[in-house]
Amino acid sequence: MVLSNGSTTSGVSQAAGLDDSDEYACPICEEEVKGLVNLNSHLDDVHQLGMKKAEDREGRPSKLPNGTKKHAKIDRHLRRQIDMKKDHWIRPIKGSSRCEFCHQILNQENGIINCRKCGLLFCRAHCKQPVKLDRMAHYDPIRGEPCKCCLKCLENRPGYNEFGFIRDRTAVFSKARKSNNEDRDLRELQLEHRFIRLVNGIVYVYRVFEGTFMASLRISAEISKLEKSIVPWERDEFAIRCYICETAFAITVRKHHCRLCGKVVCDNEINNCSNLLPLKNLINAAADLPLKITAQTGADVLDIEIRICAVCLQSLFKKRKFLKERVTPLSALLQKYESLHDISRVIMGILPNVERVLDRAGGIDATPDEISQLSKLRRKLLDSFSMYDFMTKQILQMQASNASEARIIASIKLSSATFIQDKMLPLKSISSVISSKLNTQERTSPQASEQLKFDNDLTIKEVKSCRTQLMVLKEQRFLVQEMIEDATKRRKLDEASTLTSNVNEIDVQIEELTKKLGQQGFK
Amino acid sequence: MLQFKLVLLGDSSVGKSSIVHRFVKDSFDEFRESTIGAAFLSQTIKLENEPDVTIKFEIWDTAGQERYKSLAPMYYRNANAALVVYDVTQADSLAKARSWVEELKSKVSDKDLVICLVGNKVDLCEDGSEPKAVEKEDAESYAAEHGLLFHEVSAKSGSGVSAVFQQIGSKLYAQKKDSLAASSQQRNTVNVELQRPSTNDATSCCS
Known about the structure:
The structure holds 2 protein chains of 2 kinds. Chain A is mainly alpha-helical.
């Protein structure tokens, strides 16, 4: 991964001409950041990657106290005037010297300036790039003084790159990302341990106190003791706001403790900051953890509800849920819908093509080639639509296993009906264009009309079956020819002659079929 | 040597290709791929009851899938014999076989066409892994009614396969014998021995 200089943020992004409206994901913590500038400042602030650079800047001599700075500048200026190498400078000739860059005649007004590096003459506008040079007019980016130079010398200086400065930060980022991930994994592991201890503890409490005197009271007391032993609870009086949604606590906004992290949260139903979750569901969701839940564990244990905040819930169960969902296959209905969707995408892909060809073929001077292309598209579209219709019917015939599936089926029915109505429209215009074209052709050539009539005698179904027959025959011809080659190789000439006669037979049939299909055949 | 054209017909995956391969190559492949188009094989046999007669079968093994149905007429048109195969564990396949028999009867004008109804995969019923869906008696009575030869075979174990071709061969030979005897008297033929041994000796150029 390569990223522009981390600290000089605005300058880099402008120089690179990047659009700041894009969203970027931080390479370390995957947080979404808007724009490169913000990404850079995020990296600097959150991950402290900009620190070193900032120190560099402070160490520069330009940050000298104000009083000495001015003095030093004058001093250095004078020194440079005296010391600078000048013998490579080209002497200006009044009225005839021209700027090397813009070729205008140099005079007092636009300036007569030698580039300090190459010594050529330039106007003021084209010789103002500061380049650090030593006294012998060589590049010296560290100890040199900024001197007026032409653009060419600026670009020729060592290390100059038109596209900005590139620094490879991949190693740094991946290291930071690794430690970030390790932190997260550790947090998750900690939460898992707490969860296991909590659940096992509750089961233990039930087993010990079940059936004793005042069981329910003693159990609830033991459980609340257990909960506090697993994680020290944050003290109520220090909590002013919910740590997730930052709502201030009040009489109606009660304080609650997450049993896994011990922090104080509200139980806002809209934000879902914390929820009372039945043990049963939690155990189901985290079946891979080594919980001491057995078949003997009573139903009343599983009905206990634990308060868990949204953050803990997320980090404990989100990954598990994702993995679980990925493994389970789609239901039959959804699979059918996917294929239906695929067909609709095919149709959507054909339609723009149809419109383009229609535009061209709609004109008076449409070539027969374009018309045949149009009829091909029409056939394709018709096939796709019949397929779509078929799939829709299959879905509608399915038995809904529950209310939501029934709703899904109903809405598929509705949407497919509108889809077909919407998208069938171009089909009508295609057939009208084709028929009008065919009519004009019929009038012009009587011979062609005969041919067309013959074509039109075949229904689409007949054409289709003829085509498959033709295809099968061609396949078979190929196969038999291979067999002939094989037989000749093995010197079984009598077999080869039988096969050859078969090829001739196939050829006759192919010819018949192509004649029958006429224009509807393969090109 | 007599040559006869033989065609195999029947529903898909009843074991037509397996029967042919058992007959021609005496091998069996459990996972044979379905045939594309029509395959051609040939096999020469000696008749058991008439040891001096050799018969060469040119076998066209057609694909059973619906897509290739249009190819079949080309192959049964000039055939001397047709093997209509069904699967004894699939009742549907017998119905398909019946339709093939009817098609043959209506489309082929040659009255000498020998049709043999063959029930395949009897080994599956013998080892009890699948119930028998078509009883031998039913198929046999149907065959007798329409004047077909009938056999039950197993391409996997090879039982009954050669008997099918032996019976077809002897029936074809019996038909041919009369017409051959009649024509040979009239014809004045010159025998050109195509497969005579080479007369070239070592001194000739094309040794």
